[in-house]
Amino acid sequence: MPTVKPPSFFRSRVFVLLTGICVSLAGTFFLPARPAPAATIVLDPGHGGNDSGAGNHGEFTEKRFTLTLAQQVAGRLAARHRVALTRTADVTTAPEDRAAVANHLKADLMISLHLAVAPYCGDRTAAVYFHNDERLTIPPELTIPGTTNAPGTDRPAWATLQTRHRHQSQHLAATLKQALIDTGAADTVTVSGAPLVALMGADLPAVLLEVGCVHPAVALTSQQFNQQLNDIAEPIAAAIETAVKELLR
Ligand SMILES: [Zn+2]
């Protein structure tokens, strides 16, 4: 019977070394790069229906801008993520219904899209807001019959949901700011806290993004409308990708 010699010390070290190199090479050449995490993203086209938003002197209103922008950004993200819009047509949409879409889907993040209004904007500026309700009073029309107030406050419970995500929302705002600057979409991006009725019922990280620029008394032309959309849709989608990686890492 042939005897099987155990591998020498030298041989086993070579074996281990070669195995290690092969595993490393396999990792380098054959394993796919780790994909970006898939997220559920809710885009909220600001205004709609009876509420035209800014630029209501012409055909190219803010409500139309935000819906088109949301559709274009969604189209760029849909291959990798589940993306939902709070409205897909020119319809009046209540603030609590916008947040409810995101809550119902258990979304990872929500971004409300708006058009900035001069003189608080310029050609290459953007603003990101997170919800800060310190001075917030709830308008009576937002009180939903049958709902209870949050303990110790005069606010409906749903209107306090965003407060527990304040830090994450603030971080999301800072991430989007940096990503918009890095992608060259804007030179100046401000981050601020403000009472945001559309986001206060959102039980997830959520921010409001103001882009573009319209003068309150001057209608946007078709060319300005399309130019502003073309300039911003791709960078916003890229910035959201960066934010998703940051949030879900
Ligand atoms: Zn707006």
TrEMBL record:
Top-level EC class: hydrolase
Protein name: N-acetylmuramoyl-L-alanine amidase
Any GO CC annotation of this UniProt entry: outer membrane-bounded periplasmic space
Catalytic reaction annotation: Hydrolyzes the link between N-acetylmuramoyl residues and L-amino acid residues in certain cell-wall glycopeptides
Enzyme nomenclature, EC number: 3.5.1.28
All copies of domain MurNAc-LAA, residue ranges: 41-241
Cited InterPro entries: MurNAc-LAA_cat, N-acetylmuramoyl_amidase_3
One of the GO biological process terms: peptidoglycan catabolic process
GO molecular function, a single term: N-acetylmuramoyl-L-alanine amidase activity
Organism: Desulfosarcina alkanivorans
Keyword terms, alphabetized: Hydrolase
